[in-house]
Amino acid sequence: MKELMHFAEDQGIEWLTIEPMSCLAEPPTLPCEMKLMGEELTAYHEANADSTAKIGYCTDIAHGYLNADESEGFNHIELFKASLPWLYEIHLKNTDDRFNSTFGFQAANVEKGIVDVAHFREMLVENADIIPVETMGCYLEIGGPKLGRDYSDGQVAEQLRESLIYLKENFMQEAPVSEAIASRIPEIQTPAKDEVVIAPSMMCVDPLNFESALRRVEALGTGMLHMDVMDGHFVPNAPMGLAMIEALKERTHLPVDVHLMVSDNDFFVSLLEGWNVYQISVHAEACQHLDRTLSRIREIGAKAGIALNPSTPLSALDFILDRIDYVLLMTVNPGFAGQKMTPASIQKIADCREYLDAHGYGHVPIQVDGNVSFENIPGMVAAGADNLVAGTSSIFHSAASWPENIKTMKAAIAEGLAARKPAIAVS
């Protein structure tokens, strides 16, 4: 390689690139191999700057590998990060969760693939100070069907076209950033009154592929992440632990919305302190000292919400309106996904909207959780819902891809907004 560096310089070539691979038989593959090779060749160039070309990596964002027992060795994100100090150019393609098949970014392939290109752009922004070039060359790498045909094949042309459009929208545009550069972005703003926020319920994703699902959700452009915390006591379920929420504080740019379904709310609120949680809701039915708990949530820097079960009357709001930043209305009995909406739910949303407006708290948003389906969304939004916790009956519906489901949700939201009644004027 060192001889090639001299030869390249003789030919007037400024950079030579090495592609880290996805097989242990083809080094550099391991992060340590990338580091050792990058450091050795960079040091050699610096010692022979007048007679050698520079060395950089052309890294494929879909490269990861499995061990012989099919356990994960290093995933595509870990291998990409290891190449950053020597990164010169990028190969853009998608892959499955076994790093076996590779393909482009057509809608169907985005659904089945694990590569979130917006996350890779975010990593570039975060690590700009260690990347050795100012301008990054990026290439779409797509196999296409071919099968003996040439690239005039219509299928390939459409795959290329859709993939390039997707990359333009999700990789070339301004990417969301993580906690590492949070100081560069403005504080999260309260949504406009005619804007309905979509909050994907992360208890509905595959827990064994949570980060992959997280990146796919981030790419959808949703407003926040809804995280349910259950203790197996207040509700007979415990699907998601606090460790997942703690891990999110440095791994997502989206606001984290925590719904506590627990008996000891004060204990869990204290644990959430310092975890960059955006808002926390507690159940009126489970709080012994509700006013104190809501005040404590605000003390740790989060917005405070009160959650009401389907049979809990709105009178539970009477003496804590000045302590809350939002109301969470359960339209199913809490604890499990996939339930049917309780019969009086739409009317309760409308009554809550009227109650808040009449008491001078029309600015307080209503979050709705439970069977937020394509069919129910228009009625929920028309009644006054401002924030929709989306689960298996909408964003994660199995009948279509997540991007397609988001489009269907937005159409249903628009239908609901068109039918929404004006707020009650308060003098």
Produce the secondary structure layout.
Blueprint lengths: L1 H9 L4 E4 L12 H17 L6 E7 L4 E2 L5 E3 L1 H8 L3 E6 L1 E2 L6 E2 L3 H6 L4 H10 L10 E4 L13 H17 L26 E4 L9 H10 L5 E6 L11 H7 L7 E6 L3 H8 L6 E5 L6 H10 L3 E6 L17 E5 L14 H14 L7 E4 L7 H7 L3 E4 L11 H17 L9
Parallel strand pairs: 1-2, 2-5, 5-8, 9-16, 10-11, 11-12, 12-13, 13-14, 14-15, 15-16
Antiparallel strand pairs: 3-4, 6-7
Descriptive account of the structure:
The chain has 427 residues and is of the alpha/beta class. It folds into two domains: 174 residues, TIM Barrel (Alpha-Beta Barrel), CATH 3.20.20; 233 residues, TIM Barrel (Alpha-Beta Barrel), CATH 3.20.20. Helix content is 33%, strand content 16%. The protein is built from 13 helices and 16 strands. The strands form four sheets. The protein has an eight-stranded parallel sheet with strand order 9-16-15-14-13-12-11-10. A four-stranded parallel sheet has the order 1-2-5-8. Helix 11 packs parallel to helix 12 and helix 12 packs across helix 13.
Record keyword descriptors for this entry.
single chain; 427 residues; TIM Barrel; 2 domains; 8-stranded parallel sheet; 4-stranded parallel sheet; 13 helices; 33% helix
Order of helices and strands: HEHEEEHEEEHHEHEHEHEHEHEEHEHEH
Flag low-confidence runs: 175-191
Global morphology = elongated
Mean pLDDT: 86
Biggest sheet strand order reads: 9-16-15-14-13-12-11-10
Reported by name, the CATH topology of the largest domain is: TIM Barrel
